[in-house]
Design goal:
Length: about 400
């Protein structure tokens, strides 16, 4: 190989600007041991370098001439399990931080998160961490960080660790933790709650408006969603208050139903990726079927209200199986089995206490804008103004999302 020489008097040409788009990936395969290539480190240090939205941990900074019998050996992978943290800026950073810290995930926040995880390594093993900005290289709102799992903690313990909560409170960042394996990016089934998840209303509350009993029904709904009373009993109590409501109420409600921002985009993207999708609702089947058709879902399960013999009004009774927490969990497993999908490749998203069982059963369970008690018990939580942000949890960048929806 030859190289040309540049006269010392010639001014060097400015380096071209690094492009921020149009990236390409390269895969390198190690095909054997390489002799006399890399020397042994004679001065070992460590530093973190942030370049182009990624963190690189450098563990050796100077090399000596290698001995004649030296070989290059790939670094060992520390820890028996890799984790992936998705950091999402909520805009609620501590007032003690510098101005603007609440607008993006800063380098300082990334370094502090990695340091926090390192401190939880017992016995101590230095974590090999990396990070990737998913929306903006310069001012990212969403960043994912890969690191090693602390050996003395399981994933649920880590999600609830007080050090992690303190980090979130200080930086105004929500941290969603997942096992970093092949199933994280490659899901195949998504199931959703309907009320206050895919749509912004609680349907039974809307029906109650027609009979002037909104306050009574809303009070029962709130207690059920917070897990204060049994869901099945609360549903029967609310439905009993709807006796005499015109059977045409569901057609009238279609005009006032508001889909949650990002619901259409999320479902369109998942459909493009080949997902099967279902709505599993503690609401009522006429509107669940409407939501299914509007969003292009594959399944709809919900409760069925009894209509009077003349078909004119609701009787205040239910028929068929109630779609409660246990039923939702069973339906998730049933739909997954029908489609040959392992549970590791499923997502469950909801906001209420009756969604917790399916969240814990799924490969990824997300409490979306959920009640406080549900956020505390759910596997993951996300507080966002758009359901489309769920795509970040699958590792999809903003550019990739644009291709899908």
């Amino acid at each position: 190989m030859t190289a040309g020489l540049t006269p010392t008097s010639a001014a060097p040409e400015p380096a071209p600007a690094r492009p921020l788009i149009g990236r390409a990936n390269s895969s390198a395969f190690f095909k054997g041991q390489l002799k006399n290539i890399l020397g042994a480190p004679s001065q070992v240090g460590e530093k973190l370098v942030v370049e182009d939205g990624r963190t690189i941990r450098i563990t050796a900074t100077k090399y000596s001439i290698p001995p004649s019998d030296s070989v290059a050996v790939p670094l060992a992978t520390y820890g028996d399990k890799g984790l992936l943290a998705t950091l999402i800026q909520t805009g609620k950073a501590s007032e003690l931080l510098e101005p603007g810290a609440a607008n993006y995930v800063s380098d300082l926040a990334i370094f502090e998160f990695i340091g926090t995880m390192d401190q939880l390594m017992v016995p101590y093993i230095k974590s090999h961490a990396y990070h990737r900005a998913l929306d903006s290289v310069t001012d990212p709102r969403v960043v994912e960080i890969g690191f090693s799992m602390p050996q003395m903690l399981d994933l649920q313990d880590l999600r609830r660790h007080e050090d992690l909560w303190r980090f979130e409170e200080k930086w105004g960042i929500e941290v969603i933790l997942q096992t970093n394996d092949a199933f994280r990016r490659h899901k195949r089934l998504a199931v959703f709650d309907m009320d206050s998840t895919l749509i912004q209303q609680e349907v039974v509350d809307e029906i109650a408006r027609f009979v002037g009993k909104e306050a009574e029904v809303s009070a029962i709904t709130a207690r059920a969603m917070n897990g204060e009373i049994d869901f099945s009993e609360s549903l029967r109590q609310r439905v009993a208050l709807l006796k005499g409501v015109p059977a045409t109420v569901f057609e009238e409600l279609k005009s006032v139903i508001t889909f949650t921002p990002g619901a259409r985009e999320l479902c369109k993207a998942l459909k493009m990726l080949g997902y099967k999708m279902a709505v599993l609702s503690g609401g009522f089947i006429p509107l669940a079927n409407y939501v299914k058709e509007e969003l292009g879902l594959d399944y709809a399960y919900a409760n069925q209200l009894v209509v009077s013999a003349d078909g004119k009004e609701l009787t205040g009774e239910l028929t068929g199986e109630i779609v409660h927490a246990e039923r939702k969990e069973l339906l998730l497993q049933q739909i997954a089995a029908e489609n040959g999908v392992p549970l590791q490749q499923t997502i469950a998203i909801g906001d209420g206490a009756n969604d917790l069982k399916m969240m814990h059963r799924a490969g990824l369970g997300v409490a979306f804008n959920a009640k406080a008690i549900v956020q505390a018990e759910a596997p993951c939580r996300m507080n966002s103004n758009t359901l489309k942000d769920v795509l970040y949890l699958l590792g999809l960048t903003r550019e990739e999302q644009a291709q899908l929806c």
